[in-house]
Amino acid sequence: MAANSSASTDVENREWYVASYAPTGVPNSEHLKLRTVSLSLRADSIPDGHVTFQVLYVSIDPYVRTQLSGLDDGLSFPQIPLGQVITALGMGKVIQSKDAKFSEGDIVLSRICPVSEFGVMPSNLLQKITPAIGIALPNYLSCLGMPGITAWVGIGKIGNAKAGSNVYISAAAGGVGIIAGQLAKVKGCRVVGSVGSDDKVKLLKEECGYDDAFNYRVETDYDAALTKYFPNGIDVYFDNVGGKMLEVVLNHVNHGARIALCGMISEYNKVWKEREGVRNLLNIVGKEVMMKGFMVSSYYNHYEEFIKEMGVYLKEGKINSKHKIYNGIESFLESLASLFSSSNVGKVILQLTP
Amino acid sequence: MAANSSASTDVENREWYVASYAPTGVPNSEHLKLRTVSLSLRADSIPDGHVTFQVLYVSIDPYVRTQLSGLDDGLSFPQIPLGQVITALGMGKVIQSKDAKFSEGDIVLSRICPVSEFGVMPSNLLQKITPAIGIALPNYLSCLGMPGITAWVGIGKIGNAKAGSNVYISAAAGGVGIIAGQLAKVKGCRVVGSVGSDDKVKLLKEECGYDDAFNYRVETDYDAALTKYFPNGIDVYFDNVGGKMLEVVLNHVNHGARIALCGMISEYNKVWKEREGVRNLLNIVGKEVMMKGFMVSSYYNHYEEFIKEMGVYLKEGKINSKHKIYNGIESFLESLASLFSSSNVGKVILQLTP
After folding, report:
1. Which of A165, B166, B252, B253 could form a disulfide with A235 if both were Cys (CB 3.0 to 4.6 A apart)?
2. B286 and A262 in contact by Cβ < 8 A?
3. Residue B354's pLDDT is what?
4. Rounded CA separation B75/B354 (Å)
5. Known Pfam families for this protein (chains A, B) (predicted)?
6. Shortest CB distance from A279 goes to which of B75, B273, B291?
7. What percent of chain B has a predicted confidence (pLDDT) above 90?
8. B53 φ, ψ to 5°?
9. How far apart are CA A335 and CA A337, in angstroms?
């Protein structure tokens, strides 16, 4: 249902919920369903300390898939209970507020925004942002938001990438990877990425400053590919995919290499015992590799430092942000599935309000 | 051949050499052979800057096995060339010296001591030690030597074990593990170890202060064992075995756990593609685990700090050193094989001179 501009009445609110879990495979319309619920936006029906908002954008990220399996073997995010609305990082525009810190028209972010057209939430779960002039709102869900700081943490805080480092990034045209590679270039690294389509190879090399890139669906002998693209070995690996690629990387790391484990999208659609086993962890000993997993939420205390640095890069045109926008609440399922098919380029975002 | 006490003549020197590589399995008498070679100990036949010595003890450590496979898929130690004498950490007594810094009777250590009865080496590859009163020489190959600093690095520098940490140690009655657990106890941790015999379980609990220990050959359901012994999860894992146990541990780690990868003895007798694949590395992401491999040689700059600390613990009786001594050069093969059969307790040492 379209937004009601006065927004002081009830609305028919469409929202995605979990009808059944998908332990394996890509979740589809049997698992995730759209329903319409009545939501009161009248001031007298909103509790104190709450805010109602119209959802503008929802960030579509691989980790969400791990909350839809019904299993406890993925990332450590809680499973979304059956029947409940799916939540994700999202951005909204305040309709009414029962908290003096928020006013009608404010732009707010929430890490547990409902995938719906409207929302009512306690204000302490919302963060107000003041968009800078000339910066389109979706950037606050990409380079200036969660994917941006994720890339920044993995390349800098964990990967410790320095001038001259040989940096490898998998899922390099994804929401995080595309920024990670550009950040590594800013630091003077040699950067190569792997992606799932030739178009993405072109994009990384021509628009994102990557030194090289390859399509892992074409160059399926990963060992040969890494031999070719990293003649001097790998110093930093920003891992977004896990599995087989991680194993091959461990045969190409240099002494003292650092591996930032950001996510393992190749493994999310399988139960853990079916996941790809990595057989060569002994290389971590002999080459004294440091491998560290991270959840960006643990690094938000660095947000000011991040945003200051990233702001400069954006201003100087050193970071090229790419968004793949899906339109309308109906497109959620398609946008989520796109993460697993290499069909998206850059940050996948669902736009709910034209 | 017994040592010649005047030692100024030629000797018939027995030494172990690599006859053929053992890519899989435990190396045996087809791969490693004993031969007798004439060695001149006459002063006029020793080059300047060299020292001759009688070998007293050789440290028998799992890493040596990775130098006997003929493959480059183990630790990063070089393969010992076919036909050449095997080298290891060893201790000797100087017979003659053509370096003013060494004198007859000095006790010396070398990280590439030949597994032989006598040796001639450049003096810069030898380290002179002055044994403290009351400290038996084998301690300089265990708690005060390489295994000691290895344990100290893994528990402290990498594992960052602190009072209250739940610490798990595999191969816990081995040369490194037995010291690692005691160091963790000194720091106030709760320590549980896994070993391959009931005798070792008893030893760890009764003589080494471990809070608990289990026999992995009896409690073969590792998941059930770790559930039982770590009801509050694992904060620090000192890994000496790799493979299946590492995988199970990753299902029991707490958020922010630290894993020191010291070695992977369960995997040394297989080529890498036959090694156990670890399928649940995704837990490293969700639980923000730090996993770091290390080679103790990179930490010798901390030797003074280590020896000062360890010296105090030994003096205060907080570290109980255990040695399994094999006697005579003929016993080398048996002592090496014992590392893979759970038949040794504590540091395995080959004694060459009665």
Report:
1. A165
2. no
3. 76
4. 33
5. ADH_N_2 (PF16884), ADH_zinc_N (PF00107)
6. B273
7. 88
8. -150, 155
9. 6
Burial bucket for residue B308 (CB in 10 Å: 0-12, 13-18, 19+): exposed
Confirm if B273 and B24 have CB atoms less than 8 A apart.
no
Q: Does A3 touch chain B (CB under 8 A)?
A: no
Residue B354 · residue B56 · CB < 8 Å: no
In chain A, the largest separation of any two C-alpha atoms, in whole Å, equals 67
Whether A78 has its CB under 8 Å from any CB of chain B: the answer is no
Q: How far is CA A309 from the centre of its chain?
A: 20
Partnered with residue A351 across adjacent β-strands are A57, A327
Cβ within 8 Å, pair A286-B255:
no
**CB contact, 8 Å: A279 with chain B?**
yes
Q: Answer yes or no: CATH 3.40.640.10 is held by domain B10-142+322-351.
A: no
8 A C-beta contact, residue A199 and residue A181:
no
| Contact between B333 and B44 (Cβ < 8 Å) | no
What pLDDT sits at residue A41? 84
- Closest chain B CA to residue A287: B76
For tokens 């992401």, name the residue: B285
Residue among B274, B285, B292 whose CB faces A261 most closely: B285
The domain limits of chain A are 10-142+322-351, 146-299+307-313
Give the span between the Cα atoms of B155 and B169, in whole angstroms: 10
Below-70 pLDDT ranges, chain A: 1-8
Query: Between chains, do B288 and A288 touch, taking CB under 8 Å as contact?
Result: no
Give which of A175, A163, A172 is closest to A192, Cα–Cα: A172
Q: Could you tell me the pLDDT band of residue B2, with boundaries at 50, 70 and 90? A: very low
CB A293 to CB B288 under 8 A?
Answer: yes
Chain B residues near residue A276 by CB distance under 8 angstroms: 277, 279
Size of interface A-B (CB pairs under 8 A): 121
ipTM: 0.92
Q: Please give the structure tokens belonging to residue A129.
A: 């942002």
CATH number of B146-299+307-313: 3.40.50.720
What's the CA gap between B224 and B220, in Å, rounded?
Answer: 9
Chain centroid to CA A236: how far?
20
Distance CA B86, CA B80 (A): 7
pLDDT given at position B4: 40
Q: What's the pTM value of the predicted model, to 2 decimals?
A: 0.93
- Percent of residues, chain B, with pLDDT higher than 70: 98
State phi, psi for A324 to the nearest 5 degrees: -110, 110
Q: Is A43 helix (H, G, I), strand (E, B) or coil?
A: helix
- Mean pLDDT over B200-222 rounds to 97
Specify whether the CB–CB gap between B161 and B184 falls below 8 A: yes
Contacts of A77 in chain B (CB under 8 A): 286
Q: Are B162 and B245 in contact (CB under 8 A)?
A: no
pLDDT band at B184; cut points 50, 70, 90 = very high
| Those residues with Cβ within 8 angstroms of residue B343's Cβ, 6 or more apart along the chain or in another chain | B197
Strand partners, A238: A169, A260
Instruction: Report CB contact under 8 Å: B287, A76.
Output: yes
Q: Which of A223, A259, A275, A281 to mutate to test the interface with B (most CBs of B within 10 A)?
A: A281
